[in-house]
Amino acid sequence: MRHDLDDLAEDPLEPLSTPRLRLRAPLAADLPRIAELANDRGVAEMLARVPHPYTLEDAEDFLAIAEGSVVFAVALAASDEFIGVCGLRPTERARTADLGYWLGRPHWGRGYATEAAQAVVDLAFRQGGMDCVLAGCRAINGRSRRVLEKCGFQYRGTSTFVSLAAGRVAGEQFGLDRRTWESLKAWGRLGAEAC
Ligand SMILES: CC(C)(COP(=O)(O)OP(=O)(O)OC[C@H]1O[C@@H](n2cnc3c(N)ncnc32)[C@H](O)[C@@H]1OP(=O)(O)O)[C@@H](O)C(=O)NCCC(=O)NCCS
């Protein structure tokens, strides 16, 4: 069945630019780097669909699935070097998308995930016409929870999900609705200059 998100999944994806990053369609040239960075137990165990060990064939499968989806390769703007993935998946609910992301370990801790996620969330609401963006993370994933908090997501409850690398794990669900996103964007523009 067609989802509202399908309108965004143009082929090729329109790239997004942020101050330090370029989000673009994943390319065959990225395959070796995807395989290298995703082949990290600490990455795979935080995700649902990334196996460990992760091979070049897994990267090829990812590339095939990404085609026609709203899945961006996150690349450094200065060099176009692939550093991770950020994208949206349709959910069973109309005008509701699920946000997901991972970065290669050498690139953690520089605010890149937040920068990429904010660009994709803006896309979801601005061009994608979504009413809500959902995201989930493992209960032990403080880094990812922090990314979601910095993007304005609110805690919605607990869950469990199956990770290919870690088995069934405890998770937390977060959501960002359109009105909250609009308010945060307006706050950025209209907030007081000094406290
Ligand atoms: C989660 C992930 C994407 C974060 O990437 P990142 O680029 O390091 O994220 P950012 O730098 O934008 O933000 C990380 C925040 O977490 C904080 N943080 C770091 N370690 C933390 C910890 N152990 N507990 C809580 N917060 C932590 C950082 O201080 C930062 O917050 P701050 O800016 O307020 O200081 C990256 O670690 C990753 O790919 N992990 C494996 C896959 C994964 O977990 N994907 C998400 C699945 S839901």
TrEMBL record:
Pfam families: Acetyltransf_3. GO terms for molecular function: acyltransferase activity, transferring groups other than amino-acyl groups. Residues 21-182 form the N-acetyltransferase domain. InterPro entries: Acyl_CoA_acyltransferase, GNAT_dom, N-acetyltransferase. This is N-acetyltransferase. It comes from the Bacteria. PROSITE patterns: GNAT (PS51186).
